[in-house]
């Protein structure tokens, strides 16, 4: 996958397919993966990172359903050439549902609003910096 390195935590409670999905999305967000870029075949990626091919297939299928990838019989999996669909009301609702418990836990653990927003801003900006380092 171009210069992008996939690193999965085999000890994590987060399923491997979710970790893989998230890292591909991060690669797209940071411009390490660009519209039209081909991803390795399911079999090749599974062998390269040492996981079951069904795990890779599940991640690819989820990314296709979410509009990040298109999967073609002859070309394999490609980063959606037209770009990722823009946020709509459904996505904003999902985003709120995902962030709400994270924010609630941070608040319970004493993370101040300013600190939380700084963390979010740093993560957001780091995705641009990663993209700037690749050509």
UniProtKB/TrEMBL annotation:
PROSITE patterns, per the entry: HTH_GNTR
One Pfam family per UniProt: GntR
Molecular function as annotated in GO: DNA binding; DNA-binding transcription factor activity
Keyword terms, alphabetized: DNA-binding, Transcription, Transcription regulation
Xref: SMART domains: HTH_GNTR
Gene3D superfamilies reported for this sequence: Winged helix-like DNA-binding domain superfamily/Winged helix DNA-binding domain
Domain of life: Bacteria
CDD domains, A to Z: WHTH_GntR (cd07377)
Record-linked InterPro entries: Tscrpt_reg_HTH_GntR, WH-like_DNA-bd_sf, WH_DNA-bd_sf
Transmembrane domains' residue ranges: none
Domain HTH gntR-type: 14-82
Alphabetized PANTHER family for the sequence: GNTR-FAMILY TRANSCRIPTIONAL REGULATOR, HTH-TYPE TRANSCRIPTIONAL REPRESSOR YTRA
Name recorded for this polypeptide: GntR family transcriptional regulator
């Amino acid at each position: 996958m171009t210069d992008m390195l996939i690193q999965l935590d085999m000890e994590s409670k987060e399923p491997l397919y979710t970790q893989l999905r998230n890292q591909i999305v991060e690669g797209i967000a940071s411009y390490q993966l660009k519209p039209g870029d081909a991803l390795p075949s399911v079999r090749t990626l599974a062998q390269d990172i040492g996981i079951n091919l069904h795990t890779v297939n599940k991640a690819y299928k989820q990314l296709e359903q979410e509009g990040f990838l298109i999967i073609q019989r002859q070309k394999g999996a490609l980063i959606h050439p037209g770009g990722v669909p823009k946020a709509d009301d459904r996505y904003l609702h999902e985003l709120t549902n995902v962030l709400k418990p994270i924010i609630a836990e941070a608040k319970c653990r004493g993370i101040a609003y300013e600190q939380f927003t700084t963390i979010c801003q740093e993560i957001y900006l780091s995705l641009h910096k990663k993209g700037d380092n690749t050509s």
